[in-house]
Amino acid sequence: MTPDPRLILSEGELDAALEVFLLASAALASAADAGLQNEPHRLGRGHWRAAHLIKRRPGLGVQALARLTGLSKQGASRILRDLEDAGYAERPPGEEDARRRPAVLTEAGRAFEARGGERARAHLAAAYRAALVAYFTGHKDL
Known about the structure:
Structural class: mainly alpha
Oligomer: single chain
Strand order of the largest sheet: 1-2
Largest sheet: 2 strands, antiparallel
Number of strands: 2
Helix content: 55-70%
Radius of gyration: 19 Å
């Protein structure tokens, strides 16, 4: 791969950043999984991710969920259907187009998102604190 001279980061620095993203992604996923261990509807990480995105972007539809998560439209539709079946999401027909069914979380859905997200958010907050400590104390190896 020929380095792009416009980049400020070297290939090694880009690899280090990629490693951090991969490790962080795995750690956040594990944290969310731990919060969902006793989920009564046997929904998992993919369902939690969808619930989190719906919480942040109420009215999310199948196409947008598929685009944001990398799922196929069929996969995104299945996840939304599972959330609906569990009582965690509602998808009323759209006002202008009855075929468009934007998703919103129910109160139970917000609680489901919180169960997975509580540990993930705590993990992310701890990582931010550690990064700040490393920055201000000059420890670049954290």
